[in-house]
Write a structure and sequence with these properties.
- By secondary structure, the protein is an alpha+beta fold.
- It contains eight helices and ten strands.
- Strands 4-5-6-9-8-7 form a six-stranded antiparallel beta sheet. A two-stranded antiparallel sheet has the order 1-2. Strands 3-10 form a two-stranded parallel sheet.
- Helix 1 packs across helix 3 and helix 2 crosses helix 3.
- The longest helix is centred in the N-terminal third of the chain and has 14 residues.
- The N and C termini lie far apart (about 50 Å).
Length: about 250
């Protein structure tokens, strides 16, 4: 299972690795790539951000997108997410379907406060949902996500969420008129709980990845924490670490 922007990024990466776009060459512009892959320009931009984050290309307004390196990623089964920017997280929300399972107001006890990184007693709106790929006839979920939204935004989120198809972070930007300045992300291995085994169509105790994302609105307010459980055989996370240039004295 693969989103459109991930497909475009992978196809371009393979084209670069195969010599179709040699190092030093300029890639086709957004309009041309959107037509070539039959996708929107926003999808192309998200794919370009991933190639840039991986160090494969550089982008300048006056010079276009230049190929800088040949470094094809390893392929993996299931859904592949290669994130190098806040916009790429937002694109994930656009290109997958959210199926809401439960919406409830909660108060963080000691254990939940520890997980969310807040004080006990803080109030949240919790939205539990399954994420799926459009057109997947098997209806196999990518993940289960519990999104915790600060109580101050609960009323507006409840009113708008049915018409909002992106991630809730972008909805909070719309409501507040402020920008998400940072997304903190932590990934760990877990076992699928009894509670989630049924909805995820997976075995209880099976291997999974839990991704915790903490959303900060500028200038520094934590307003959302999401906890996503991805069955291991349906998900892979791709990133690339670049060595900084040594400073000269």
């Amino acid at each position: 299972m693969e989103t459109r922007y991930a497909y475009v990024a992978r196809a371009l990466t393979e084209a670069i690795a195969g010599g179709l776009h040699p190092v030093g060459s300029i890639l086709p512009n957004e309009f041309e790539l959107a037509e070539q892959f039959a996708v929107s320009r926003s999808t192309v931009r998200a794919a370009m951000r991933e190639l840039q984050a991986s160090g494969l290309v550089s982008r300048k307004k006056s010079a276009g997108t230049r190929v800088e390196a040949m470094a094809p990623p390893r392929s993996a089964g299931g859904f592949t997410q290669a994130l190098g920017s806040i916009e790429a997280v937002q694109q994930f929300g656009v290109e997958t379907e959210r199926h809401i399972q439960e919406v409830t107001d909660i108060v963080a006890d000691d254990e939940l406060a520890r997980v969310l990184g807040c004080r006990p007693g803080r109030r949240w709106l919790r939205i539990s949902s399954l994420r799926m790929l459009p057109g997947d006839v098997s209806k196999t979920p990518i993940c289960w996500t519990d999104v915790h939204v600060d109580e101050a935004f609960a009323r507006e989120v409840r009113l708008r969420m049915a018409q909002h198809h992106g991630i809730f972070g972008t909805l909070l930007e719309e409501i507040s008129g402020r920008r998400i300045s940072e997304i903190g992300q932590d990934i760990k291995a877990v076992g699928i709980s009894d509670r989630l085994a049924g909805p995820l169509k997976a075995k209880s105790g099976a291997h999974a990845l839990e991704i915790r994302r903490q959303y900060t609105l500028s200038p520094g307010d934590m307003v959302e924490v999401s906890l996503s459980t991805h069955p291991a055989d349906r998900y892979s996370y791709s990133t690339r670490l670049m060595r900084q240039n040594a400073q000269t004295t």
